[in-house]
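$ ./design --mode recover --in tokens.txt
reading tokens...
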């Protein structure tokens, strides 16, 4: 058999395999696009962006992203990315649910993974959310022990489920170790307005709060200026505030993003709720190391946190998911 004939047979075999069901080229990169309504550095979005950038660095995906997209422009950008051949579109649909779901219906062969308080929509619209109430509860245990005035302030973006459940879990933890603690809760009605969050925090400090739950950026700046403590949220900001941020409830989007990419690559992506992949069991969240506060948090509280963490991971202890708006208890 001639060399040219062998080459033709080999090429024919490869072509036939490529047409076979389930065939995927090992080196093929999934085309992924992300749409964010806030800057990349905003806490929530930064975790998604980080996980996608990691997949890009591993050579698994081609990644494009748009930041600061207005709600009015969101549908147009989604359609452009879908029309452009992106296989997976990631983003947040909270304020544009109807439009986002309409786009998904119009592009049934495209996979969509969006932050949403709603349910999955077949065949191709999956949802996720930041179910990090477990480390939020653990950070509350720490906070309850660290406040001296027994007054804690909480500054959030909007009173919606994905914020409420974290604040409520934090408050449960703080009350568990310190029944005397009182809470002041304020929402700034913005996802990214550090100056406004800072002003809200100052008002709480003026009323006696010596520890703040920084659900939004800007709160830890106020805490640092007034020399009170803070608990971080979603990202670990202790390196920037070593004398202020005691601990943080961290969100890790890698389990969610990596699962979606894998399913798209295998041609098995379907509409499902990815919420559980943000929980500690799946390494989707964790309590940050105490770091600079390791020797400052009481030893019995450190032991309690570790014990509770083990109970959460084993399933012996469940942190409640309370999506109701938290209320101030300070008199």
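writing sequence...
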């Amino acid at each position: 058999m001639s060399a040219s004939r062998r080459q033709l047979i080999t090429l024919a075999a490869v072509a036939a395999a490529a047409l076979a069901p389930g065939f995927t080229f090992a080196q093929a990169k999934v085309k992924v696009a992300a749409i964010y309504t806030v800057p990349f550095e905003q806490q929530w979005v930064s975790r998604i962006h980080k996980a996608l950038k990691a997949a890009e660095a591993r050579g698994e995906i081609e990644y494009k992203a748009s930041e600061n997209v207005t709600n009015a422009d969101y549908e147009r950008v989604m359609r452009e990315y879908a029309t452009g051949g992106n296989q997976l579109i990631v983003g947040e649909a909270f304020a544009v649910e109807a439009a986002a779901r309409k786009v998904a219906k119009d592009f049934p062969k495209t996979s969509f993974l969006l932050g949403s308080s709603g349910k999955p929509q077949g065949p191709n619209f999956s949802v996720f959310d930041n179910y990090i109430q477990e480390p939020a509860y653990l950070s509350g245990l720490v906070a309850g022990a660290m406040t001296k005035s027994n007054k804690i302030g909480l500054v959030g973006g909007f009173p919606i489920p994905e914020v409420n459940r974290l604040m409520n879990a934090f408050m449960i933890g703080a009350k568990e170790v310190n029944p005397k603690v009182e809470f002041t809760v304020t929402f700034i009605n913005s996802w990214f307005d550090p100056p406004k969050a800072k002003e809200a925090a100052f008002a709480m400090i003026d009323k006696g709060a010596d520890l703040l739950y920084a659900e939004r950026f800007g709160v830890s700046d106020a805490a640092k200026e007034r020399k009170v403590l803070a608990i971080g949220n979603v990202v670990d900001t202790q390196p920037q505030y070593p004398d202020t941020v005691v601990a943080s409830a961290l969100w890790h989007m890698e389990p969610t993003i990596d699962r979606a990419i894998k399913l798209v690559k295998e041609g098995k992506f379907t509409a499902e709720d990815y919420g559980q992949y943000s929980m500690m069991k799946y390494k989707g969240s964790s309590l940050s190391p105490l770091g600079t506060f390791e020797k400052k948090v009481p030893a019995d509280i450190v032991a309690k946190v570790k014990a509770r963490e083990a109970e959460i991971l084993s399933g012996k202890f469940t942190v409640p998911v309370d999506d109701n708006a938290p209320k101030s208890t300070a008199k």
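exit 0
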